[in-house]
Amino acid sequence: MSDKKPISSVNDFVVRFANVNGSGSASANEMFARAILRHGVPVSPRNIFPSNIQGLPTWYEVRVTEDGHLGARGGVDMMVAMNPQTWDKDVAGIEPGGYLFYDSTKPMPSTKFRDDITVIGVPLTAITNSTYTDPRQRQLFKNIIYLGSLSALLDMDPKLIEQLIGEQYKGKEKLLSSNVHALHLGRDWALQNLKCPIGLRVKKSDKVGDRIFIEGNSAAALGAVYGGATVCAWYPITPSSSVAEAFTAHCKKYRHDPETGKAKYAIVQGEDELASIGIVIGASWNGARAFTATSGPGISLMTEFIGLSYFAEIPAVIMNIQRAGPSTGMPTRTQQCDIIACAYASHGDTKHVLLFPEDPAEAFEFAAAAFDLAERLQTTIFLMLDLDIGMNHRLCRPLKWDDAKQYDRGKVMTAEMLEEGRDFGRYLDVDGDGIPYRTYPGAHPTKGSYFTRGTSRDRYARYSEEGSVYADNMQRLVRKFETAQDLVPRPLQANAARPTKYGVIYFGSTSPAMDEAIGLLEARGHQLDRLRIRAFPFHSSVASFLAEHDFVYLVEQNRDAQLRQLIVNENGIDPVRLVPIVHYDGSPITARFIAKAIGDHQDHLKVTPLRKAVS
Amino acid sequence: MTYIAKPKFHHPGLKKNELGYTHRDYEGKISTLCAGCGHDSITASIIEACYELSIEPHRVAKISGIGCSSKTPDYFLGNSHGFNSVHGRMPSVLTGANLANRDLIYLGVSGDGDSASIGFGQFAHSIRRGVNMTYIVENNGVYGLTKGQFSATADRGSKSKKGVTNTDNAIDLVAIALQLGATFVARSFSGDKTQLVPLIAAAIRHKGASFIDVISPCIAFNNHAGSTKSFDYVREHNDAVNRLDVLVGRDPIAVDYAPGTVQMVEQHDGSKIALRKIDADYDPHDRLGAQAFLQKHAAKGQIVTGLLYVDPDAEDLHEHLNTVETPLNTLEADTLCPGSAVLDKFNASLR
Fold it and tell me: Given this model, what pLDDT does residue B252 score?
């Protein structure tokens, strides 16, 4: 039936599951991804889900990648089409030579299929209906049954899946055995009735190593635990809610006094984002490490307080799990679209520190570091994640912690220091780094108290509308921001094998796709030096990188190339030399997209001398 | 504005409280509000209450929003940290501060614009969470700092200085606080120091969300005929249900009220409130009764004042969250960070 040779590939393909949300498919699909990991083969899974709880289409994509390319690839080699609503689009999306797996209980007209793909039907409904009577069981076990069939078709070791089921249902023997039974129902049917395996196969390997499989939001939340956060205030918003939920879970495990059972943390679900950031600022003002997690609309609401944090110099950590904006935008789709909104948040002249982790491991490190930075710099620190990092399981290096590390609580004048007669001016720059000392409320009976306000004041926190006093303070804030440059994570540079005049700058979740794209571009003969920016304010090496290259590509996941704007604005760079490569449809950027966009531009550059010759 | 320092010297014979502080130790900078402003009387009452309670001045954190009332924390407790935050957001800032250090006394000062309009939500949610605080609204029914617009507590039918009649219904913050579960609810009048000082003192001693609505006439924009928040109007319509005295570590003999009309209320911290009942039928432990009483009297155009409700055994947010007794802001890496061994195990669970 096929006029295209079926795709044949070992440990390098993409399987996409099309489901209806609320059908319980998520855990079976995740188990599929984990099972492949247990074969020693890296996977990169992604949830593609609607802003809805039940009934709408949802997809789960697993990229099986022996080479460890963790970015989205694009294209689907095998579609597990479990959702009639999206059938036509799902079938159309399969690569030529690919595979379609479906529930064949009900006959489908041949027009519903394609000639250039391999169609694999398993009567899932018939199998479940003849085995189970309870409707909920039928629904749930159907997912495990297709997992069983897939294990046979893809030549997976069923023992490894059984092991995972065993871990998941540890202590719940009945559930454990019924799940294993369902797995074998599907597997056995496939082995008896279909040609197994197909062209796509999973073969045991050793490419996973000691890496862990974790969602960025959970890692960032754990970073907050390790970083000493004691107060968390938040308001539910996709895709950030799981940060606060994970923080709650981690704290329940790690932050209760073993003797009294009491909590060494306080978590408040605020009435809105205004209250959340207000609580964070109140707690930080009073000397606790506090944070909130939110997404674009929440950032918009918080901006008045962010200005207060900047101007009154109160530490705060805001984790922004970015999603596609503007307005409500696409709440369940990924983007890096709040760069400008966060860098210059609030009215008046402001600048804020942004951190750009590339994966969960860095999310953990940067989250912990954010609290040191916030207290050192006495200002808001944004941890800029996005949905792609935050809400997907990502394979990454194990999390690490140095037990010798102490928290940097910044410049705090203690009762002893006040007693010694140290001059305390809340906004006095004693060290020339723009960072003043602060005192905690209640520190000393007669010394060190001051009145915190968002209005202008002098170096001793006394209200003032004097122009020179105001300007003096604003200049000091600039100095402080310059100090921040050397405190934030530095950019990482990787040079091409041969010297080149071309460079590329990228950040955050673009990382894996960019790394893969470099290989594709090299294959096309394009050499590029890479610079991964990890924070704003930009370190001086960013300016050097720009100076060293004729053209620099700025790869971003937003429409307006916001990081490029920020670089042009902050470094006074000629924008012509900075070529935006933007991807902003809400799906994660792919290596294919980057390689094509940069490759085409490079080809175009190479044509230029010919045109010159004609003229 | 709020930068005038007050001379520190005082009469050597000035009375001292139990901790040896004089009245002057509880003062702040010189007020820059209009002469005769009701808010300054409230400031004086706060100073008096803190002196009477022998509070260490620096153990109070005074937090406000934006507006005339929110400027006042600069005029009392000069050795306390103050925070003039964002318009309508005092409650969240105070909540956060309270979570960070449960050992300080939290005094939230706000106005009717700050709490009944822009910050109505924050007012409500801080109360329903039971934050251990004294929340004072200096209520004048008008936006003073922006020169005389109606606020949401202005009564329907009342007239502005410019002669405009308010057609919107008024928000009664006391009624709302009762509904939201505040465990100490009172109303008073800035011009009635005898009633106000003990109310503030009792509110400070109360563990839980204490709310006091203080009618405080705006001398510049809301003290004319036709206003229902003017000195004359409030004096004429004030219906006090009780007067009280707060007894801390003293014998109840300090009460000079006739037996039979005095009701003693013991608060969580052992302090006692002696209530001289003016309205014999009024029960300050009956939340529902208080709500009905308020409504009934509001319909008659009366402003009910006094301690309207108290739950002496109230719990606060820290109890709800089961937080440790040690202030969270004093915890360091040794108690907060689970360490690398735990992290290794965590990593292992993710393979």
Answer: 42
Which contiguous run of DSSP H or E holds residue A212? strand A212-215
Helix%, strand%, coil% for chain A, nearest 5: 40, 20, 40
Dump pLDDT digits (tens) for B284-294. 999 999 999 99
Mean pLDDT value of segment B192-205: 96
Give A258→chain B minimum CA distance, Å: 11
CB contact under 8 A, B80 and A278: no
Counting Cβ atoms within 10 Å, is residue B272 exposed (0-12), middle (13-18) or buried (19+)?
buried
CB A115 within 8 A of CB A3: yes
How close B237 comes to chain A (CA, Å)? 36
Q: How close does chain A come to B299, measured CA to CA in Å?
A: 32
The C-alpha atoms of residue A388 and residue A584 are separated, in whole angstroms, by 13
Residues of A in contact with B79 (CB under 8 A): 445-446, 449
Residue A261 has pLDDT above 70, yes or no: yes
Phi/psi zone of residue A461: left (φ > 0), alpha (ψ -120 to 50 degrees), beta?
left
pLDDT band at A611 (very low <50, low <70, confident <90, very high): low
Q: Does position A523 have pLDDT exceeding 90, yes or no?
A: yes
Predicted confidence (pLDDT) at residue A322 exceeds the cutoff of 60: yes
Number of alpha carbons in the 13 Å side-chain half-sphere of residue A436:
23
Q: Judge whether A449 is closer than 8 Å to chain B, CB to CB.
A: yes
At A51, the pLDDT band (50, 70, 90 cuts) reads confident
Exposed/middle/buried for residue A210 (C-beta within 10 Å: 0-12, 13-18, 19+): exposed
Residues near A250 by beta carbon (within 8 Å), at least 6 away in sequence: A218, A221, A222, A225
Is the Cβ pair B58, A442 closer than 8 Å? yes
Between CA B266 and CA A319 the distance in angstroms is 45
Q: Minimal Cα distance from A275: which residue of B?
A: B92
CA distance A597 to A583: 10
What was the pLDDT predicted at A49? Answer: 87
Give per-residue pLDDT as tens, A264-283. 999 999 999 999 999 999 99
Q: Does A316 touch chain B (CB under 8 A)?
A: no
Cα B199 from Cα B306, distance rounded (Å): 8
